[in-house]
Amino acid sequence: MASSATSALAPASVTSTQQQVVQKLVADLRSKNEEIRHRAAKDLFNYVSVDLREIPADNLNAVLDYITKHMLDTVKGDASAKLGGVLAIVALINALDLIDVCKTDTRISRFGNFLCNTCLANATDPAVIEMSAKALARLTQVSGTYTATLKLQLIAHEVKRAFEVLQGDAPPGSGGGQGQVDSSGRPPPGGSDLQRGDMRRYAAILVLREIASCMPTFFFQNVGTFFDVMFNPIKDGRPTIRESAVYALRAALIVTTQRETAKQKKHQHLVCNCVFSYF
Predict the structure, then answer these.
(1) What are the tens digits of pLDDT across the range 88-121?
(2) CA angle at 261 for the pair 257 and 264, rounded to the nearest 5°
(3) Which of 100, 109, 214, 263 would staple 137 via disulfide (CB 3.0–4.6 Å)?
């Protein structure tokens, strides 16, 4: 019955065979099993970049819209489905870059909205946040008709949101004591020390880390605000937040050391003062 309903929603230009392939890929991408999800992402990449490579552009667009609709539009709070959606986005970006067609602003914008609003802004699972932040960075590297203006609008919005989250951060030392660490002093695996209220802060830190790495010129224009907000999470009591903030700081320092000397010295002094405050 579900298959019939799905078929009824398919555009006329999507064949029944294509519908069946897509439905199987979507089901596997939403699997609770990580291995099945990753295998389905590889199959999706191969299907688009090889099997669909020679079909007319209007048919390819219709199939891509069909995949996007059924993979992204019906995702709710299920972490496995969100992870599958992120994998699907990365597979499609890589495939479309290879065949260099159908990278419309509308499609890429839809991918960005899923990553930013469904995953990063509302995630309750650290794995979803980590993968979505990396996928967002990959999205910034898309070539073709994905315009620079659209990319900057998307990233500027996410950076602003990250700064706002961290500007409202708790004062240093209020992150719940020293948190949990294992015998090696490392954070618990998978961000298991994080609580639900920590997720937006964790997402903000990872977004800034990824943007510093993949868009250094844009990031440098906002580096002053970054240093204003990042030292609170560096002093946070939860190891996952603290370590993630340190990696974000490292990415920022790489950006500043490659640029003008005056700001570089200023930011080095800030880091030194933060380090000395621990002793």
Answers:
(1) 999 998 988 776 666 677 888 889 999 998 889 8
(2) 50
(3) 214
pTM tops 0.85: no
pLDDT score, position 23: 92
Q: How would you label 38-76 residue by residue, b for 16+ Cβ within 10 Å and e otherwise?
A: bebbebbbebbbeebeeeeeeebbbbbbbbbbbbbeebe
* Interatomic CA distance for residues 121 and 88, integer angstroms: 19
Q: Which of 205, 216, 121 is nearest to 163 (CA)?
A: 205
**Torsion from C-alpha of 169, 274, 235, 136, nearest 10 degrees:** 60
Q: Select from 96, 88, 115, 90 the least CA-distant residue to 28.
A: 88
pLDDT tens digits, 172-209: 444 444 444 444 445 555 566 788 789 999 999 999 99
pLDDT in tens, 36-79: 999 999 999 999 999 988 888 888 888 888 988 888 876 766 89
Contact indicator for 36, 84 with CB cutoff of 8 Å: no
Round to whole Å and give the CA distance between 57 and 149. Answer: 25
For residue 77, give both structure tokens: 């709070």
Q: What is the pLDDT of residue 100?
A: 62
Residue 220's alpha-carbon distances to 225, 256, 260, in angstroms, are 10, 7, 10
CA distances from 100 to 146, 181, 215, 233 (A): 11, 46, 22, 41
d(CA 100, CA 45): 13
- Those residues whose C-beta lies under 8 Å from the C-beta of residue 245, and which sit 6 or more positions away, are 205, 230, 233, 234, 236
Six-digit token string for 12: 């006329």
Coil vs helix vs strand at 36: helix
